[in-house]
Design brief:
With 400 residues, the chain is an alpha+beta fold. It has 4 domains: 75 residues, no CATH class; 82 residues, conserved putative lor/sdh protein from methanococcus maripaludis s2 fold (Beta Barrel), CATH 2.40.420; 152 residues, Elongation Factor Tu (Ef-tu), domain 3; 60 residues, Helix Hairpins (Orthogonal Bundle), CATH 1.10.287. The protein contains 6 helices and 22 strands. Strands 1, 16, 17, 18, 21 and 22 form a 6-stranded mixed β-sheet that branches. Strands 3-10-13-12-11-14 form a 6-stranded antiparallel beta barrel. Strands 2-15-20-19 form a 4-stranded antiparallel β-sheet, with no helix packed on it. A hairpin with a 4-residue loop joins strand 12 and strand 13. The longest helix is centred in the middle third of the chain and has 26 residues.
């Protein structure tokens, strides 16, 4: 069959079906009015249909039907014209009240210990996991040459002292210049002794801070230089956590604010701390701000290098919160239906944040305002509505 024939046949079937619905469906006129069809057009179609339908109906039946309808309208006090809806009250919601970020922990003090002189390791006095104090000897280098140099310097000091004392005792027999030279020689010898003692002391590798010893990567007999790491010491009595926050929080965060952190190694356990430092600039590439939190670790449960989930609480910005089902859309944007004095009114809203249970909006709404959540299909501007306290099990407004 040709396409134009199929089109004409389909058009005839649609027109016939519409005519049958208008002539035989009760309340067709009301449904057409609700659909927005002009009253002038409805009045031309529906009366003809009603007259045709009533032509085959006994007069008594017609009168009885009209009487029953009028009786129901009088009994309901005109309430049948009001649309049945369900509403929920507007509540206050908060946005940007919590910050979550991922950070990396580090010991509050961490030092990679290196020798102050080159040489061969003769003795290692610590092992991994030991707690050491500042000034404690960790390892020793060979020091025979330094011991000899110190002995030579000590002998030179004694000789210089004796000569200086002698010249002072016989000032009358020697010139003042000889006495002065002996004093200078004594001072030089003492300085040489101090240098020899310093070189000898540097053969001991000393802990610069209190801390816990990491893995020792060297062994006795290794030849080391001033750049060779001997061991790493961590003071982890407190843990520093560096993390980055979005740019919008730059004017909200401050030093001293409380933070909470959870480690992957300690799931469910929350560690409290405070903001230790705030960076002075926003990273141009990521548009984030670097923060540093200090967390107490007196129980020694945390380690440097751990990853942390850090959270912070803020007062946040308050907005009206409405049910997600209440937000509708038209050509001008989003809106909700507000019920005031049993009348429905359209209120324009701007969505701020979507959540599973509610939507935060920017609108002229206050706490307690009634917003239509069900029965929205037939609500019109300024139309009468009737709020139902019962909701059917399927989520629709109960109509009985």
């Amino acid at each position: 069959m040709a396409f134009w024939k199929q089109f004409i046949l389909s058009l005839i079937v649609i027109i016939a079906g519409f005519a049958a619905w208008v002539f035989f469906a009760p309340g067709a006129g009301d449904m057409m009015r609700d659909a927005g069809i002009p009253e002038s057009l409805v009045s031309k179609i529906v009366p003809k249909a009603e007259e045709t339908a009533d032509a085959g109906t006994p007069a008594g039946t017609q009168s009885q039907r009209r009487g029953q309808g009028e009786g129901r309208n009088r009994g309901n006090g005109g309430r049948n014209s009001a649309i049945l809806v369900a509403t929920e009250a507007v509540v206050q919601g908060v946005v940007n009240d919590r910050l979550n970020a991922i950070g990396t922990g580090d010991a509050i003090r961490s030092v990679a210990v290196t020798p102050q002189a080159s040489g061969t390791i003769r003795e290692i006095l610590i092992k991994s996991g030991d707690r050491v104090k500042a000034g404690q000897v960790l390892a020793k280098l060979d020091s025979e040459e330094q011991v000899i140099a110190r002995g030579q310097a000590d002998v030179a000091v004694r000789a210089a002292v004796e000569k200086s004392n002698l010249y002072h005792n016989i000032k009358s027999s020697v010139s003042r210049m000889d006495v002065f030279d002996s004093e200078i020689a004594e001072q030089g010898a003492r300085l040489q002794l101090q240098a020899a003692e310093l070189n000898l002391a540097r053969r001991n590798i000393i802990a610069p801070i209190d801390g816990i010893v990491g893995i020792v990567p060297v062994n006795i007999g290794d030849n080391v230089t001033t750049t060779t790491p001997i061991v790493t010491l961590d003071d982890r009595s407190e843990i520093l956590v560096d993390f980055w926050v979005p740019e919008r929080f730059s004017n909200t965060v401050a030093v001293g604010q409380p933070v909470e952190a959870m480690s992957v190694a300690k799931p469910g356990q929350v560690f409290s701390g405070v903001i230790e430092a705030v960076d002075n600039r926003i990273d141009a590439a990521s548009r984030t701000l670097r923060l540093r939190a200090r967390i107490d670790n007196s129980s020694d449960e945390l380690r440097a290098g751990m990853s942390f989930s850090v959270s912070m609480k803020f007062p946040g910005d308050k907005y009206p919160a409405v049910d997600p089902q209440s937000v509708q859309w038209d050509s001008q944007g989003s809106f909700v239906w507000q019920v005031t004095d049993d009348k429905s009114h359209k209120v324009r809203v701007s969505i701020v944040q979507r959540n599973p249970d509610f939507i935060l909006v920017k609108a002229d709404l206050k706490d307690g305002d009634k917003i239509v959540t069900q029965g929205l299909q037939r609500v019109r501007e300024g139309g009468a509505v009737r709020v139902s306290a019962d909701v059917a099990a399927n989520g629709e407004v109960a109509t009985q």
